[in-house]
Design a protein that fits this description.
106 residues; single chain; alpha+beta
C-alpha cells in the first residue's frame, strides 16, 4: 500500500512568554484544530480538566458553551486577549509578568 503521508499543523501555543519558561508553560492558550476548518481555544491543553474559550472571551469547562472558531486569526486574537485572565495556583497574569521580568533582569 503506497499512500502519501500528510503532515498538518494541528496545535498552536499562544503566549507572551517564551516557550521553556514556567510562565510560558502555564500562561498560554492553545489553538487546536478539531477538523473541518474549525478550531477550539483551550487553556489547559495537556491536562485535565481543560478550559475552553467562550464567544464572550471567558474560560469555561463546559465544552458545549465553548465556541468553534472558523477563522484562525480570530481564534488567535481571542486567545491572546484571554491569557491575562488565566490564574495559576493563585498567581495572576500580572504576577507572572513581574516574576518573569525579575528573572530576566528587566
Amino acid at each position: 500500500m503506497n499512500r502519501e503521508i500528510t503532515v498538518e499543523p494541528w496545535t498552536y501555543r499562544v503566549s507572551p512568554f517564551p516557550a521553556g519558561t514556567d510562565q510560558g508553560r502555564f500562561w498560554c492558550a492553545w489553538i487546536v484544530a478539531i477538523g473541518d476548518g474549525r478550531w477550539h481555544v483551550l487553556e489547559h491543553y495537556n491536562s485535565t480538566p481543560q478550559s475552553f474559550l467562550t464567544v464572550n472571551g471567558e474560560w469555561t469547562m463546559d465544552r458545549e458553551a465553548s465556541i468553534c472558531f472558523r477563522d484562525f486569526d480570530v481564534a488567535k486574537r481571542m486567545a491572546a486577549e484571554a491569557i491575562p485572565e488565566i490564574t495559576v495556583n493563585g498567581r495572576t497574569y500580572d504576577e507572572a509578568v513581574a516574576m518573569y521580568e525579575r528573572r530576566q533582569g528587566l
